[in-house]
Amino acid sequence: MKRIAQEMDAHIVFGFAEKELPHYYNSAILINPEGEVIGKHRKIHLDEWDEKWATPGDKISITPVNGFGRIGMMIGSDALFPEVASVLAVKRADMICIPTSWNGKYGTELSMNQEMFAKPYPNGTVSTWDAVAKGAQAYTIVANFVGTDTQYRGRSAIYNLDQNYTEDETVIASETEETVLINAFHTMKTDWWLDQEKLILTRRTAFYKPLVTREPPFF
């Protein structure tokens, strides 16, 4: 993968089984065009498949990349937990990359009144991945398999931030065929009615209720 990144002059994100004895992790790494590993994510929310062998990760991080912005990653069922996208938003991720192995076990095809939007959602939009993009206000790139005995359902995609801004598109790949997706977008949207900075301001953390409290020490 390092060699391919160099040959194609491209950034690559891909998933793999990582060994760091005594543990194994379901991991994804980000490689730059020089073939260097510049970012890594270990899947935090394991499912029934990888909890048999993998140790959950414990970090949600971003990687600044010149020309792209700040890149965050999650893997598979990490997308089911809004907190992951929320942390990436707080860390100002411009883009979220999600390698996954999805066969329809979560999420539904988005069904909304298309007349509400300046540009309709494309067929095959998956609600879970669209929610990551909208909830974090970060372009979300999903890479999934197609076919095999596991009946993976494809729909690799690049999700935009708002269907009412027509200069950006959400593009969805085939459910059954391998395809290449190309999309052009700008990651900084400071003139929109909602951007990431405004999203963060709505959190009002001063009013959060603690889930765990510590009693003062007794002497």
Describe the structure.
By secondary structure, the protein is an alpha+beta fold. The N and C termini lie far apart (58 Å). The strands form three sheets. The chain has a six-stranded mixed β-sheet with strand order 4-5-6-7-10-11, covered by helices on one side. A three-stranded antiparallel β-sheet has the order 1-2-3, with no helix packed on it. A two-stranded antiparallel sheet has the order 8-9. Helix content is 15%, strand content 24%. α2 links the parallel β5 (69-73) and β6.
Key traits:
219 residues; alpha+beta; six-stranded mixed sheet; 4 helices; globular
Which helices and strands occur, and which strands form pairs?
Layout: H1 2-8, E1 12-20, E2 23-31, E3 37-42, E4 62-65, E5 69-73, H2 82-90, E6 95-99, H3 127-136, E7 139-143, E8 146-147, E9 152-153, E10 157-159, E11 171-172, H4 196-201
Parallel strand pairs: 5-6, 6-7
Antiparallel strand pairs: 1-2, 2-3, 4-5, 7-10, 8-9, 10-11
